[in-house]
Amino acid sequence: MVLAGHRVTHGEPFRDLQRLQIGDEIVIETLTSGYIYRVTSGSGGSLRVADSASWVLAPSPRNPDRGGISPPHSTRLITLLTCAELFHTSDRFVIFGELVRTYLRVHPHPEA
């Protein structure tokens, strides 16, 4: 799963993305399910790529730079992506995380 978001405007969903650290949890919820991922790489803004770096969007991303940051081999991976600077920039911050747990969301039925 790949999620991209703005750091400014539109609710600023990824304003502080670079503050995530290895081991932090990322919680994604849908109407029926929840997914908990743990940050595995890219913490602290350590993975900065050009906006043309398409490898970060692959289902199993592999950094083409020898010795560069890559996520662990995992079939259940999340990639978070945002602008590297608050305003115009052609670089992106990238965070990778592994799925550690899922859960079903319980919704009470509205009273009639």
Automatic annotation (TrEMBL):
Keywords: Hydrolase
Gene Ontology molecular function terms on file: hydrolase activity
Protein transport found in the keyword field: no
InterPro entries: Sortase, Sortase_dom-sf, Sortase_E
Matching Pfam families: Sortase
Active site feature: 6, 83
Protein name as catalogued: Sortase
Organism: Nocardioides baekrokdamisoli
Biological classification of the source: Bacteria, Bacillati, Actinomycetota, Actinomycetes, Propionibacteriales
